[in-house]
Design a protein that fits this description.
The chain has 340 residues and is of the alpha+beta class. It has two domains: 225 residues, Rossmann fold (3-Layer(aba) Sandwich), CATH 3.40.50.300; 97 residues, OB fold (Dihydrolipoamide Acetyltransferase, E2P). Helices cover 27% and strands 31% of the residues. The strands form four sheets. Strands 6-7-8-3-9-10 form a six-stranded mixed sheet, sandwiched between helices. The two termini are 41 Å apart. The structure holds adenosine-5'-triphosphate. The site of adenosine-5'-triphosphate (ATP) has 13 residues, from strand 2 and helix 1. Keywords: ATP-binding, Cell membrane, Membrane, Nucleotide-binding, Sulfate transport, Translocase, Transport. This is Sulfate ABC transporter ATP-binding protein. InterPro entries: AAA+_ATPase, ABC_SmlMolc_Importer, ABC_transporter-like_ATP-bd, ABC_transporter-like_CS, Mo/tungstate-bd_C_term_dom, P-loop_NTPase, Sulph_transpt1, TOBE-like. One of its GO terms (molecular function) is ATP binding.
């Protein structure tokens, strides 16, 4: 393991930001710290970086107890959402900075800067000032700069958070490819589940200062440990007091044993699929309709339209998680709210 966090706690006044957090970050992998805003992701990253001191617990990096080490002795590189570059220095000078203060030979600095700029596809911008780059190019420069000193760990705090959706998506694909090339142990913070699912090898779900689950994207999506994780990673709807994925519900137009009876209240076409909102018998129009997704062809074959009587049951093998108490998905939306 590259990073071992053991029993870390952190409070700000009365507020507990991290509550006895333990996690092992594997060497050479891309790990996402994922969770809703305020859950403690950045605090954990900053404690690993040494920019924040934990109240209790231990941080080990590459086998060394780093708990009391200052950031510059931890051999970590970091990149934040709003990267502070040296504005008066060219891109190549910014990237060279860490090597120059370490008094590396000139020829080595030159070669390494060239390699890094090639790696982040900024060779042609070497002589520009940071202000002459786009937001995405600046973040790539920041990554080159962080990688220059060959850190054993790269820590990224929402590195693409300030960029528009399209650039963000390009950069996340690029980060994945970059990581496949350099294999440096990387931990990145995100509140975007799609970003974590697409990019990470391993995801640590953090909520209210606690770890909810650790696993591969597949593990978390297919085997969520609880209703929070299930609701946070992917769409969910509530069927018979359980969270179910909307594509995991079987719809029949004739009564079926144990099925929930209801009436189609709304049919919504979204791209290639159709969302059917089913109001269970006796339920009110209070936004708690069961949502089922299916292909348009299938919806047509069942003849589904507003007013059709249907019976719903989970597909065989569907993941179901009991709904515990109040809604728990981010933003306190009702658990069956879906983005349409
Ligand atoms: N210096 C501080 N003083 C007081 N409270 C703080 C401080 N830093 C963080 N907090 C609080 O600790 C909690 C966790 O913050 P943190 O930044 O770790 O969350 P996060 O999961 O990274 O959220 P976001 O995605 O919004 O950045 C928040 O409620 C925040 O208000």
């Amino acid at each position: 393991m590259s990073i071992e966090v053991r029993g870390v706690t952190k409070s700000y006044g009365d507020f507990v930001a991290l509550d006895d957090v333990s996690v092992s970050i594997p060497t050479g992998r891309l790990t996402a710290l994922l969770g809703p805003s305020g859950g403690g992701k950045s605090t954990l990253l900053r404690i690993i970086a040494g920019l924040e001191t934990a109240d209790g617990g231990q941080v080990e990096i590459e086998g060394t107890d780093a708990t009391a080490l200052p950031p510059q002795r931890r051999n970590v590189g970091f990149v934040f959402q709003h990267y502070a570059a040296f504005k008066h220095m060219s891109v190549e000078k910014n990237v060279a900075f860490g090597l120059e203060i370490r008094k590396r030979p000139k020829a080595e600095v030159k070669r390494r800067v060239h390699e890094l700029l090639e790696l982040v596809h900024l060779e042609q911008f070497a002589k520009r000032l940071p202000s002459q780059l786009s937001g995405g190019q600046r973040q790539r420069m920041a990554l080159a700069r962080a990688l220059a000193v060959e850190p054993s760990v790269l820590l990224l705090d929402e590195p693409f958070g300030a960029l528009d959706a399209k650039v963000r998506k390009e950069l996340r694909d690029w980060l994945r490819r970059l990581h496949d090339e350099v294999h440096v142990t990387t931990v990145f913070v995100t509140h975007d589940q799609e970003e974590a699912l697409e990019v990470a090898d391993e995801i640590v779900v953090i909520n209210q200062g606690r770890i909810e689950q650790i696993g591969s994207p597949e593990d978390l999506y297919d085997e969520p440990a609880n209703d929070f994780v299930m609701g946070f990673l992917g769409e969910v709807t509530t069927l018979d007091h359980h969270l179910v994925r909307p594509h995991d519900i079987q719809v029949r137009t004739t009564p079926a044993d144990g099925g929930v009876a209801g009436t189609v209240a709304r049919v919504l076409r979204v791209g290639f699929e159709v969302r059917i909102f089913v109001r269970p018998e006796g339920a009110a129009d209070d936004g708690t309709d069961v949502v089922v997704t299916m292909t348009r062809t299938f919806a047509r074959s069942l003849g589904l339209e507003v007013g059709t009587r249907v019976w719903l049951s989970p597909e065989q093998g569907a993941r179901r998680v009991p709904v515990v108490g109040a809604p728990t998905v981010p933003g306190d939306q009702p658990v069956d709210a879906v983005k349409v």
